[in-house]
Design a protein that fits this description.
There is one protein chain. The chain is 30% helix and 20% strand. By secondary structure, the protein is α/β, with parallel strands linked by helices. Helix 2 runs parallel beside helix 3. The longest helix is centred in the N-terminal third of the chain and has 23 residues. The model has no long low-confidence stretch (mean pLDDT 95). Bound molecules: 6-phosphogluconic acid. 6-phosphogluconic acid binds next to loops.
């Protein structure tokens, strides 16, 4: 991995979620204090469920929810009430439990039968919120990301067309192995963030994590390696099971915190 990153190894999944929740809460408070608002892109899948539940339980009234704005890094091409919806998961675990104004929540319009149109609409939503000029990318305060056992992140799957996208902010990405469309932020959009935070838990991710952080194979086969913020922080929260194949030398090359 060429760009600098911080690796935080936690003993257990619960330790990982606790540490990540503290990071998100601190990032949100600092962003509002320094810039008057906090814009976050949430991750989907199953790993973040426990994180969102912890944030809802721990942050409570202590966060400036009215100055916090919620987006998604990707979405399945399903309606918002579908069991596979990343929006539905975040709403159930976090957004329905905290006093964030409804107008501060920007789901990807994945109910649109035309996934390309949904992507275009979301791109316009981001252009408007971030007041972007042509060619600019949104600078989220924080982007949360998971990683699949194949090294994908968001809906940037190995050898899919979205990996080549250099100018769009949001695209529809056909994923052959899923036989489905996904709507996803593109790499330039993700890499414009002030901070990106990966959550990787479980032994099924160990091989991909080693390839992403230490491998030298083609990055298109391990898209998470392409997450390299241009001017931002990159922090990997991993638990012991996910980190079990990482080399001991990795400790010296990046700041690693053991908890
Ligand atoms: C999604 C996510 C995806 C996820 C990884 C890991 O929509 O599924 O955005 O990138 O983070 O697939 O998923 P798990 O956390 O379920 O292992």
């Amino acid at each position: 991995m060429s760009s600098p990153f911080e690796l935080r190894r936690l003993a257990t999944p619960q330790d990982l979620f606790q540490a990540a929740a503290e990071e998100v809460i601190s990032n949100a408070a600092n962003a509002v204090a320094q810039r008057g608002r906090f814009a976050i892109a949430l991750a989907g899948g199953s790993t973040p469920r426990n994180l969102y539940t912890l944030i809802a339980a721990n942050a409570g009234a202590s966060l400036p929810w009215a100055q916090m704005y919620f987006f998604w890094g990707d979405e399945r091409h399903v309606p918002p009430d579908d069991p596979d919806s990343n929006y539905r998961m975040a709403k159930e675990t976090l957004l329905s439990k905290v006093p964030v104004p409804a107008g501060n929540i920007f789901p990807i319009p994945a109910e649109n039968p035309d996934a390309a149109a949904a992507a275009e609409i979301y791109e316009q939503t981001l252009r408007k919120f971030f007041a972007l000029k042509p060619g600019e990318f949104p600078r989220f305060d924080l982007i949360l990301l998971g990683m699949g056992p194949d090294g994908h992140t968001a809906s940037l799957f190995p050898q899919t067309s979205a990996l080549q996208e250099k100018s769009r902010i949001v695209v529809n990405n056909w994923v052959e192995k899923l036989g489905a469309s996904r709507i996803t932020l593109t790499l330039p959009a993700l890499n414009a963030a002030r901070a990106a935070l990966f959550l990787v838990s479980g032994s099924d991710k160990a091989s991909a994590l080693r390839e992403v952080l230490e491998g030298d194979g083609p990055a298109e086969k391990f898209p998470s390696r392409l997450l390299q913020p241009v001017d931002g922080e990159l922090i990997w929260f991993v638990d012991r099971a996910a980190a079990c194949e990482l080399s001991k030398s990795l400790n010296q090359s990046v700041e690693t915190r053991q908890s």
